[in-house]
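Listing 4. Sequential folding, example run.
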Amino acid sequence: MKTPNGYEIIQLFEQFAPKHLAMEGDKIGLQIGTLNKPIHRMMITLDVLEHVVDEAIEHEIDLIIAHHPPIFRPLKHIVTDQPYGRMIEKCIKHNIAIYAAHTNLDIAKGGVNDWLAEALQLQNVDVLVPTYEEPLKKLVVYVPRTHADAVRKAIGDAGAGHIGNYSHCTFNSEGMGTFLPEEGANPFIGQQGKLETVEEVRIETIVPARVQRKVIQAMLQAHPYEEVAYDVYPLDNKGTTYGLGRIGTLSEEMTLQQFAQHVKTSLRVPTVRVVGELTSRVRKVAVIGGDGNKYIHQAKMSGADVYVTGDLYYHVAHDALMLGLNVVDPGHHVEKVMKEGVANLLKTMCAQQKFDIDIYVSQANTEPFTFI
């Protein structure tokens, strides 16, 4: 077991919720402090407020991972006798780093919106609002037959060859490779000044652009040749689609009133706001955690019977009525599902890396509203 530093923790986490998934202008990443230090205790929270930082101090936390960035707008001043400035001062004094994962965590596969869809027991879940299609590359490499299996395994293990639910997908064709080692070469096969002919395998596979460097490094390490012949081609077809929100179906149809109660129970909220006729029938459900006002038309066009999102505006509710779209608003705070979700994720990832670290889920209540 080893104590990780902050960079190692965040590098792990960003494999799950990479920064490039975030919406333009989102304020994600390290916001306060440094990652260049050992991390013994880490805390997961939805919001960073002064009483949350006090909780972190009490539990001797080194790193806070938050969903909502505490610094979202440019700072004009930090006044330490006011709550906001005092919060920042406490973090700095107690060497607490704060890292924010916002829309990248919303968009990530298995992230906030998937946790909400799972809590609502949705089936056949898909992305509601596509925001990013992963570019794909075609990798072609020429390998002596004796090492084809090793190279195929290396590039597959590094992330190449994923098509749907299949991994390590390649196409292989055999042929003859020729080369003439010149002065200064140290050939695996043959000798300087003599033209060599070798039975080789042409291995082709598909590679997500984000892992291209990793795949090529793995290929080069497994390949026996001093100079490896390979090609990388851009592809017009796209890889995995990422986006905000999810859409899926309930196991059985129910009334809007029954569904509203289902939302309350599943998301553990004391009350919900409902737009639509309570007796209307619903089965297809769209959901976006947090404020999803701007995506009401996408929810309607997706064929959803009901849209679950927070912070619904008065006039947007009127728009929903005119569109004939039912809406259930459980509030913004339902994104609290990220606390247990991120904690469980990081516990698993850290255990796999044999990291010696305690992961604590904040117990501080950051819901600003009291329901009477």
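-- end of first protein; second protein begins --
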Amino acid sequence: MRNTVILPLALFSLILLISCRKKDDVPYVPTGPVTQQEINGWVLDSMRYFYLWNDQLPGQPDKNQETQVFFNGLKNREDLFSFIYNPSDPQTITYDMLNKYGVDYTIVNWPPTGGVIGVVKLVVPGSYAAAGGLKRGDYFTRINETVLTADNAVRLSDEMLKAEISTLTPAILTNGSFVEQPLVQLQRQRQTASPLYTTKVFNSGAVKVGYLFYNAFNDGYNNYVLAAFEDFKRKGVQELIIDLRYNAGGSLAGAAMMAAMIAPGVKEGSPFVKYTGNSRFPTRTLSFATTLSVPETGDPISFNSLSGGRLNLSRVFILSGRQTVSAAELLINNLKPYTTVIQIGATTWGKDKGAVIISDMRNTKRISWIMHPLTYRLANANGEGGYTQGITPQYKLDELSVLPLAALGDTRDPLLAKALSLIDGNGRVSNENIPAAVRSSIYDSRDKAAVNSIMILPK
């Protein structure tokens, strides 16, 4: 995750002045052209104050380097996620496929032909991909009219991310062979669809089972989530399946909101998250109420406003994948002190740390770069964290074991089927005979979103 922690403005003001002080400690604003040394000096001073591993920073790094090169040279060997970018320079910004083109896919080995095939995992409603007829489970053979191979899959995907317009060539599996269809043109556009893709209620005998697929914890859609849980409660849902297999994180307040509506016995003052930084930032515990009070965007969330959606469940089923990251992982971990979490799918990514946003907030802004250095280790109410290798599910399943991929919320999906079978024994997995080796993924576009994901912690 590229976790983002917002700290009090007083701390930001302090750090922005550190590199601009005279010997008598009187702050001043530099004049004249901004130099590379000034930018990198600001970066270094910020890292010395906020960075989780600030005691291991190099003493005299070369400040004449390009900014991203300089920043990456400061990072600890354990740190895979801190980043810096310049909003005015697109070349410094990392994009992911879903947010750029409205589609996520994986490219896998296909043993029957000895080649590879693209598999569509997710399509954003209203995107060019959706308008072109692409849907979850579709196959494709070409990117920008070049046939996919094991050798070019990564390169073609990277080139696609750099382009403004790209194409995929869908294909239908017929009698063991792929028959290509007319290509689909994809164009870069801002994706605005709700991350709450689908909700369902399954009637399994006397048991009502709620299902919710959520792709990101976005505070702009908290009311949609609350409405979904209120609907579950009205319909008498007794078991709940939360699908986070592609959820790359987002707002901590959104995660706390969902946790509060799932778990029994949670009160306003119940602890939700603990985080610990360097020597300047000792361990801090945030209650549910405090966490809800500072969403990433929008108005504070009242704990009492959630009462209509609180299910008070003694257990919850969470579907996970490699791209379950950040706030999604934190939800899994931080529910455990309050309810039984039954996790199904693949081991999560393993991002158990948070960061801060650092930018030049002076009235006379001189530096346009924004950085997100890792600053905190995260833990649940019991102090349990440290899931750097990911959170391992009790039931390991690969969704690619059954192709074509079923629609989200379809009981033919092996992860959902497993959850339903654990609840009432009626879950079914397709018997389609797909060789196990097909699950060997060469490239997965969702990995970019996992690395770039953002989690917002309250002040």
